[in-house]
Here is the input.
Amino acid sequence: MRFTAAILAIVLVSLSGFAQSYRKVDRFVHSALAANTGNVDSLSAQIAGSFSRESDRLRAAYGWICSNIEYDVERMANPISYRGDSAVRVTLAKRKAICSGYADLFIGICRQLDIKAYYVSGYTKQDGGIVDQSHAWVAVRLSNGQWKLFDPTWGASTWQGGELVKRLSYEYFMREPADFIKTHMPFDPMWQLLYQPVMAAEFYGQKVVKDADYLFNYSDTISDYQILPEPRMYANAMRRMRWGGIRNESSARYYQFLEKEYAFALENERRTLHEIWLYAFCDQEKDYQTSVEMYEQLQQLKTDYSSRGVSFTQLQYQSDVLLEHSKKCVEALKRLKPSEQADLLLWDALCQKVESMQELVERQHKLIGSGSSANAKTRNSR
Here is the structure.
């Protein structure tokens, strides 16, 4: 009995300490010092200096945003496109934002706190009905490897009687993916963070027959997603969207956005590869010019080597070096073979020059070699 009472006391103390910790976080959220913070760096520094636990830091960031940032109703009908650092600066300056601003500000604070946070866009379900409008929230990978989802926009206010009412709620703070999918459908199924993603038809309430053994390794997919070349990144996202289903206008617009980004990324990649090819081509042109100069020097050396006191051995050495350099030029040019990024006219013209030079160099090398044999016979006859 005493043992049971002791265990109960320990549990109650632990719970009390946990609650006390969150009370400290909540006091910070509503403090005047925190409220007057004007930039991400100082706010993040205050949070980092006040709390060591990851969950406390996340709650402080989430609570501060929900308490100090109002939803910008005027921008809701005609949203201006702010993302990333621009969104953070505008949000903190105006203390107003739409969902993208809430998400970007939360991500900005998280990253200052060395917490991995990612922007997620999709559509939602409210009061049992689909809201065909783009929305943004945040996925966070905790230090223990678990994934949690956050919606600071929904944590800052709610609709009541047709009006937007400001209030702080932690209902959509650090939610499990399996619960979050009930109200939030990402455009890209990867961000459901589920091993068996929900298809769009299922989100709309339809029954879908799926392979019960089907598993999607979202963690590996996200890891690959962050290091893939942009064209593949967008192509894979579009493929996942087609798998999940494109059921409404907001999804269709997002897919069109991915298509445009994919085309833009492909063009950028093509230009970059073309610039790389041109850089390598210029190196080959320089090597060819070096061959020409070496050939001219050899010809001059061959003409007056006796008058300058140059030995025939030096002439042979110079010819050997030129021959080796010429062979390397031919091999390097072959490696720089034509591709979609190559300028075929330039490549063909240089090939003809290099091949012609190679023939001259080989012919000259044979002549010098035969001269060496003649000199050797003369010395032997003596």
